[in-house]
Amino acid sequence: MDAAKTKHLSGELDAYAHWFAAPDPAAGGHFLAVTLFAEFGNTARVAREVTAVFLRGVGAGELVDDAQLVVSELVANVVNHTVPDRHLARPGGCRRIDVTFKKYPKWVFIGVGDEDSTPPLLPAGDMFPAALVGELSEAALPDNGRGLLIAQRLATSVWWSPEERGGKTVWCRFDLDQSAVCSA
Questions:
Q1: Is the per-residue pLDDT at 132 higher than 90?
Q2: What CA–CA distance (Å, rounded) separates 85 from 76?
Q3: What digits encode the pLDDT tens for the residues 18-29?
Q4: Which contiguous run of DSSP H or E holds residue 99?
Q5: CA-CA distance, 107 to 129, in Å (whole number)?
Q6: ∠ CA(169), CA(177), CA(131), 5° rounding?
Q7: CA atoms within a 13 Å half-sphere pointing along the CA-CB vector of 74
């Protein structure tokens, strides 16, 4: 394996290891978790505003526009598509949306969790590789299911993880520009 691939793989493994751990404030890490509810009319707006406040507060303001769009799309997916797992559903209750932010010197992780264990799907977009999506005419893209395509396009990495209690979290990783971080 050549040196460039080795360095890239090393960076991916390092990011993956940090995703599991709580950020250490002494090492420049920050953490925020917010619970919102799908039935409130301003949920997506509040999620976007919290995203901007967190990112600007931790010196990652250059990510605000992309991260707000990704968070808005992921929250909209919860609002429009999730049905809580039977053991998590409460008659007349609101559906929880847990938004988690982790910032390290090199990365920002954003997770949007819900109470539905069904894996997220790319209805038609999964047949288009991320590199090709940018070249396609908007007419060729699906009418729905674009939220995850948008997240894949804007974030460095997108994945999901099941939660122990039920439900899932869709995670996005944004790599920070190290020259901007060093000068901030």
A1: no
A2: 18
A3: 666 667 777 778
A4: strand 96-103
A5: 24
A6: 65
A7: 32
pLDDT band at 164 (very low <50, low <70, confident <90, very high): very high
Q: What mean pLDDT do residues 121-129 have?
A: 56
Residue 135 corresponds to which amino acid?
A: E
Using a 10 angstrom Cβ sphere, with 0-12 exposed, 13-18 middle and 19 or more buried, the burial of residue 7 is exposed
Please give the structure tokens belonging to residue 179: 């020259």
For residue 105, pLDDT beyond 60: yes
Separation of alpha carbons 72 and 59, rounded Å: 21
| CA-to-CA separations, 115 to 62, 76, 177, in angstroms, rounded | 31, 14, 34
**Rounded to whole angstroms, what are the CA distances from 3 to 17, 24, 106, 156?**
21, 30, 20, 21
- Over range 101-109, report the average pLDDT: 94
- Collapsing DSSP to helix, strand or coil, 152 comes out as helix
pTM above the 0.85 mark? Answer: no
- Who contacts 129 (Cβ-Cβ below 8 Å, separation ≥6)? none
Angle at which helix 64-81 crosses helix 146-154, to 10 degrees, equals 160
